[in-house]
Every structure is written in structure tokens, then in C-alpha cells.
Amino acid sequence: MKCYDCTQEVREGTVAIGVCSGCGLFTCQDHSDVVAVPVARLNGLGTSHRRAPARTVVCRTCRAAGTAH
Ligand SMILES: [Zn+2]
Ligand SMILES: [Zn+2]
């Protein structure tokens, strides 16, 4: 898969590392950040298991726009 932003810039040779959680486009390492997402899901029982944060890929455009979590 090709990175969407690289395609726009006509950059060749980059490989997408994931899918942006904001816009759903493929994005490469240069055009995205992998951010930690704390898992805060309440199950109604009041117990929280200690878990490592999840992670998500956010492209630069979405990160700048603040639309992704
Ligand atoms: Zn790219
Ligand atoms: Zn995006």
C-alpha cells in the first residue's frame, strides 16, 4: 500500500505503515504518528484491570486538525 500523502507529493518508494484512525487513509511513517491511547472502558462493575495503553495511527493532517483520538 502507498501512503496517501506521499501519493499527493508524488514521492516514490514509501510504504504505508498503517491506516489513520481519523480519515482512514493509508499513511507512512513520515506522514503519521503512532500515539498511545489509554484504554478507559467502563464495564459497569467498577473494576479496572491494569492494561497497557492501546495505540493508534494518526496522519499528520488529522493530528493537526485534532479530529483523531
Ligand atoms: Zn507518506
Ligand atoms: Zn488522517
Short description:
The chain has 69 residues and is of the alpha+beta class. It has one domain (4-39, 52-65). It has two helices and four strands; from the N terminus they run αββββα.
User: What value does the Rg take, in angstroms?
Assistant: 15 Å
Ions and ligands: zinc ion
Structural class: alpha+beta
Mean pLDDT: 86
> Could you describe the largest sheet, including whether it forms a barrel?
2 strands, antiparallel
List the helices and strands and how they pair.
Blueprint: H1 4-8, E1 16-19, E2 26-28, E3 32-37, E4 54-59, H2 60-65
Antiparallel strand pairs: 1-2, 3-4
The chain binds zinc ion (2 copies).
The site of one zinc ion has 7 residues, from helix 2.
Features:
69 residues, alpha+beta, two-stranded antiparallel sheet, binds zinc ion
Would you kindly provide a written description of the structure presented here, covering whatever features stand out?
By secondary structure, the protein is of the alpha+beta class. The protein has one domain. It is built from 2 helices and 4 strands. It has helices at 4-8, 60-65, and strands at 16-19, 26-28, 32-37, 54-59. The strands form 2 sheets. A two-stranded antiparallel ribbon has the order 1-2. The protein starts with a helix and ends with a helix. The structure holds zinc ion (ZN) (2 copies). One zinc ion (ZN) is lined by residues 3, 5-6, 14, 28, 30-31. InterPro entries: UCP037465_Znf. Pfam families: DUF2180.
